[in-house]
Task: inverse folding
């Protein structure tokens, strides 16, 4: 593969995933990932600080969630703004062409307990991003935290279903958010 081809981060992520499946996460080096992608080690480090991060990407998802919460209609309440953002996430990020990669990624994570902490941190970062975006919309702190945490739970449920189903992420996220809302109402009544 020529070095000038586009999407170096995507090529590195695909190469890493292939190698992690073939050799195991612990037995794969950054140099091997870069070589498999047809790139150099320095190119790898231009995009990722270490081999662990190649599985987690940048802050694309958190950034998109924040942007879409801001773009939600002004009449939307906190959970509706989160739902708007989850819909956009499904349209722009969790598309059918990414499902196989995501399922393979989850299998690598599941097989490597050392990566679980980073995955948990990523999920916390998503919730924090939603909290900040909701607060910028004028949602009071506690309401923003509750809505964001419920949204993060809905995201997690939807993501786990999406990687093994053929349904669209947005529909799964809306269903999960409705179920989370209902469960919250049941707990508090």
Result:
């Amino acid at each position: 593969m020529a070095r000038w081809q586009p999407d170096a981060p995507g090529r590195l992520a695909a190469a890493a995933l292939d190698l992690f499946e073939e050799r195991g996460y612990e037995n794969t080096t950054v140099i091997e990932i870069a070589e498999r992608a047809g790139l150099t080690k320095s190119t790898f480090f231009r995009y990722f600080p270490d081999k662990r991060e190649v599985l987690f990407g940048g802050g694309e998802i958190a950034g998109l969630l924040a942007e879409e919460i801001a773009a939600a209609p002004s009449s939307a309440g906190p959970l509706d703004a989160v739902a708007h953002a989850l819909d956009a996430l499904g349209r722009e990020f969790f598309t059918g062409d990414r499902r196989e990669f995501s399922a393979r990624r989850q299998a690598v994570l599941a097989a490597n307990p050392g990566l679980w902490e980073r995955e948990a941190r990523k999920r916390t970062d998503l919730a924090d991003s939603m909290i900040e975006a909701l607060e910028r919309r004028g949602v009071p702190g506690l309401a923003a935290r509750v809505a964001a945490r419920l949204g993060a739970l809905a995201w997690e449920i939807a993501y786990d279903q999406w990687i093994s189903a053929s349904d669209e992420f947005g529909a799964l996220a809306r269903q999960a958010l409705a179920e989370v809302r209902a469960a919250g109402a049941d707990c508090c009544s």
Remarks:
- The mean pLDDT is 92.
- The chain has nine helices and no strands.
- The radius of gyration is 18 Å.
